[in-house]
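go over both lines:
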Amino acid sequence: MVAGVRRAGGCRDARDLVEPPVGSPSSRSKPPLTPEQRVLRARLGAYAQHAKHDPKQTTAKARRIFAERFELEVDPDGVLEPAERARRAEAAKRAYYTRLALLSSRARRKE
């Protein structure tokens, strides 16, 4: 894909988010950001967003959908009592995070 040319649906190539299109005024005036600069730019954006909006409100939908994932995992047909579904979903969530911790531990050990 040619830099700066939009794909169908208006999506751009991921490189276009980091590097301005070749020949654009911003590509001539600014060098590409280093990985460390991109991290700082993202952190700046996150801090600015959290300064303007309550993070609990901006992430409420994502947190709700994440929690529903475990309920659907343990009761896909919706036949369990709500209390039992919640208990099993909590156990599934603990298993999920324990699995992540195990994988993280293994990855650190290989280094």
In short: DSSP finds six helices and no strands in the chain. The CA atoms of residues 71 and 77 lie 10 Å apart. The chain has two domains: 12-54, 59-110.
